[in-house]
Design goal:
By secondary structure, the protein is of the alpha+beta class. The chain contains two helices and 13 strands, in the order αβββββββββββββα.
Length: about 190
Amino acid sequence: MKKILFALAFSAACAAQAAPIAYQVKRSIGTGSVVGSLTTDGTIGVLASSNILSWSFTLDDGIGAGPLQITKGVNANLLLTGGLLSGDADSLDFNFGAAGGFALFQSPNPGSGKDWWCLEGVNSGCAGMGVGETMNRTNGARYTAYNSVVAIGVVETSQDVPEPGSLALVGLALAALGGARARSAKRG
């Protein structure tokens, strides 16, 4: 019985969902910039749209159109294809050297023709500029070419603190083991 209780408690503690990871983005693209943050559900590895909990970026072309903040679900949306965006405990990466994928953050919607940040791999067709990173504010597209994996965001704070839910499950497992041991000692 003790082994079963321990196994259940340990499995529950291990199955606890990873803590969200917040990445800070500070990109220079030609005379323009993209600055902001992107938060994932804590998935390590290739990211899908469903793994991205929130994002907000300020686009600035650097030539007078003025900055514009674009935010998920407020005034902009994301189109993510091809599995080229990935995250780990330290950085948010995009594989510009791989084929057929892109991440397009655009206001008001992907395909609207203005106000975007596009990360595109080989033959992706995102912004049509080629392999690399593009930002556009009104009609001032700025482009930087890449052909490898590039860290586009970093974690600025430590994420190594165990989440309270996991600690509670471990505590519950230890309490259950202690109770089982006490009952066993009374019987025997």
